[in-house]
């Protein structure tokens, strides 16, 4: 994985440990498609849960080339952090342990307090394994003047 850092950058691992939304870009024939997703960063791979109703796993099986963008933004402080990934994804069998690590980041460690939609995921679901080839890490924060 090649990481492109600019003068203003940040710690990628710390950034990816936050419960941020990622935008997964896939291709459907000649048209790009964007899916907002939760993610988990582990062993230099991004993991995403796919459900039977999701269409992005179908697109990934047809064309594994993907891009993922993640932004942290705070209007009050002027914070703007961006990580942009390009790489390839695969559809993998569901792994309950990995899914729990991912979901705990967003809903806490007490599974009983999770939204019921996420408490009983099973093998009808799948995982997307995204392996980045390049990553752009850029701090585009600005000074707030009000």
Judging by the overall fold, what is the CATH architecture? Roll
Instruction: Report the strand count.
Output: 8
Strand content range: over 45%
The CATH topology label is: Pnp Oxidase, Chain A
What Rg is obtained from the alpha carbons, in whole angstroms?
16 Å
Provide the structure class.
alpha+beta
Whole-number count of domains: 1
CATH class: Mainly Beta
Tell me about the largest β-sheet: 8 strands, mixed
| Number of separate helices | 4
The overall average pLDDT, rounded, is 95
Helicity, in percent?
Answer: 10-25%
End-to-end Cα distance, whole Å, is: 40 Å
Report low-confidence residues grouped into runs of 5 or more: none
Protein name: Pyridoxamine 5'-phosphate oxidase
Organism: Salipaludibacillus aurantiacus
Domain Pyridoxamine 5'-phosphate oxidase N-terminal: 12-122
